[in-house]
Amino acid sequence: SYELILPPSVSVAPGQTARITCGGNDIGSKSVHWYQQKPGRAPVLVVYDDSDRPSGIPERFSGSNSGNTATLTISRVEAGDEAEYNCQVWDDTDEHPVFGGGTKLTVV
Amino acid sequence: QVQLVQSGAEVRKPGASVRVSCKASGFTFTRYYMHWLRQAPGQGLEWMGIINPRGDSTSYAQKFQDRVTMTRDTSTSTVYMEVSSLRSEDTAVYYCARDGAVGALDWYFDLWGRGTLVTVSS
Q1: Do residue A86 and residue B44 have CB atoms under 8 angstroms apart?
Q2: Per-residue pLDDT tens for B53-84?
Q3: Helices (H), strands (E): how many in chain A?
Q4: Beta bridge mates, B69
Q5: Is B100's Cβ below 8 Å from some Cβ in A?
Q6: Which end of chain A is more exposed for a tag (fewer CB within 10 A), N or C?
C-alpha cells in the first residue's frame, strides 16, 4: 500500500510560519488533501487538491505539492492552530484513500 | 445548518454487531457519496467504505469486506453502517463523512460527523 510520511511533531512560535511536510513516492502526481484534527473532535478539511481551500478556511492555510513532498503551510500561526494535521491521497494500488500518521503542531 | 449528526456511543461484547447512524441536514443528501472511516485509540484514520447517492452501490476496504454493511435511507437523509463479528480491535471512533464532490466522486472528505465511539469489551 502507498505510504505517507509526516514528521511526528512541529513546533512554531505565534506569528511565525509552520510548514508540515507529507512525503510519498512521486506524491507530486497525486492530489493531496490536508485535515486538521483537535483532541476529541472530528477532522476538518483545510486544503484539498494540493492547494485549494474550502470555504471558511483562512487564507493563512496553503498547500503545495511536487516531486516526493507535499507541504501544508500555515502563515501567521495562532494558538488556535494547535492541532494534529494529516495528509491523505488516493492509493492507486489498493484502490482506496490512505492517510499519513499525522503531525502534532505545537504553538510555543 | 450543514451537518452530519451521528448516533451515540455503543458498548458491545466480542462477536456481537453494532449499527451506527449518520443523519444529514442542510444539503442535498441525494447528490453526495458518503464514506465511513474509523480511528482506533492513538491510531490514524482508516477508510472503511463508501455508499453511492442512491444507496444501491457500495464498496468496502478489503479488510472489512466480510463484516461491514453500509446502507442509506434517502427519505430520512440517513446513512447507516453495521459491523458484525466485533472484536476488541474494532474499538474505535467511527466517523461518517461526505465526499468532496457534488454529483461525482473526488475521494476526499469535506464534511464529517462528530464520531461515534464503539467499545468492544467482554
Answers
A1: yes
A2: 999 999 999 999 999 999 999 999 999 999 99
A3: 0, 9
A4: B82
A5: yes
A6: N
